[in-house]
Amino acid sequence: MFKPTFSILALTVALTLGACATTPTPSSRADRPDRVILISIDGFRDDYLNRGATPVLDRLAAEGAHGPMRPSWPSVTFPNHYTLVTGLHPDHHGIVSNRFFDPTLGTFTMQSKETAWWDQAEPIWVTAEKAGLKTGTMFWPGSEVEIHGVRPSQWLAFDQSMSGDARVDQILSWLDLPVDQRPQLGTLYFDIVDTIGHRYGPDAPETLEAAASVDASIGRLVEGLKSRGLSDSTLLVVVADHGMAATSPERVVWIDDLIDPEQLRIGYSGAVLTVDPAPGHEAEVQAKLVGEHPHMECRNKADVPTRLAYGSNPRVAAIVCLVETGWVAVTRDRPLTRAGGAHGYDNQAPEMRAVFIAHGPGVVAGRRLTDLDSVDVQPFLARMLGVQAPVGDGRPQDTLAITQR
Question: What predicted TM-score, i.e. pTM, was given to this entire model?
Fold first, then answer.
């Protein structure tokens, strides 16, 4: 029987957050870059580096600061992208899954663009705009809506068909604007590594090919900055929202074998399962689902382990199930028919570790970081931009470990 490990890991190095009302700023303007570009490679596991497919990223990591980063839980795309730019765990910023139910607003999906979904937190581009900086966002979750009355100066609606090189060229075109219109904070998003990782699995050659294509696009960005004379004054921060674990049709928890799916309202299924009882079936769901099962453990949201920082937001489903890494929980009308990849698992699982690289002005060359958390990125960005950010979920002073003293 699978028994998730709920012990708290010791925090040892760098980039963890804490209870500070604002982020510390560098000691002088010379310590900061002129601009920061935050790059997300969806589903890029930290150990995809140094496999021979990513020479640009390997060089940025070697010349800058880098290390594996622990995602927030659940380790899925939308919650973690919002964590990266707000410094808050999903339970605190309100985007608690890729799909969930809000008692007032209804059902959230990754296509939901209404402002009210996003206004429980302040993303870094809003902080920067309030401080008088220009920002430009390429496809970051939440950047298509007005939040707290603010939008990025430049932004585009998500278009998955847009190539990686075209996305880079859009960022570079914003840097070609007159100086007073150029973004001092830019975000850039690539989704192909996650898409291919789901289809073929984390160790498939196709997934490394996808990583290589993104690496080439980032190389295009680096060269574009150099040709504009902006390379030495630009901080590149490369992150991922989560890693990827291999799955198989042989490793499936069939929800139907535990309970009639008609008795449930399933919010999210797969590497994590979130459900609410259907009206009138509360007692049956409690009796049949809550507890330990082979390869899965289900708890009432009030009983989710504290280390996962999940369960207090009204948007969290009544019952939350941790699935063993490499297994998926699905209903028989959505069978898993081929080996591939998934994420959403325990955020301390090695397979969920995401990449983190910082390269540019103020960063200690060759600094290896060993205990990063996704909530650490926003205070680091704020400090390097020289803006005061709202309180987050950790110790922003520890992010000084990656920068020049």
Answer: 0.92
Cα–Cα distance for residue pair 203/189, rounded to 1 Å: 22
- How many structural domains compose the chain? 2
Cα 140 to Cα 137, 153, 379, distances in angstroms? 6, 14, 18
**pLDDT given at position 396:** 64
pLDDT at 106 over 60: yes
Residue 20 within a domain: no
What span, in angstroms and rounded, lies between the C-alpha atoms of 100 and 110? 10
* Mutual angle of helices 192-200 and 205-227, in 10-degree steps: 170
Catalytic residues: 77
CA distances from 405 to 12, 27, 28, 112, 362 (A): 19, 9, 11, 42, 8
Pairing relationship of beta strands 106-108 and 319-323 according to DSSP bridges: unpaired
Write down the pLDDT at residue 2: 41
Task: Kindly state whether residue 74 falls inside one of the protein's structural domains.
Answer: yes
Q: Are residues 105 and 92 in the same domain?
A: yes
Query: Which range marks the domain in which residue 294 is found?
Result: 247-342
Q: What pLDDT shows up at residue 403?
A: 77
- Tell which residue, 48, 58, 358, 19, has the closest CA to residue 202: 48
What's at 319, amino acid-wise?
I
pLDDT band for position 404 (cuts 50, 70, 90): low
323 and 379 in a common domain:
no
CATH of the domain at 309: 3.30.1360.180
Distance CA 16, CA 38 (A): 18
Same domain? For 240 and 326 the reply is: no
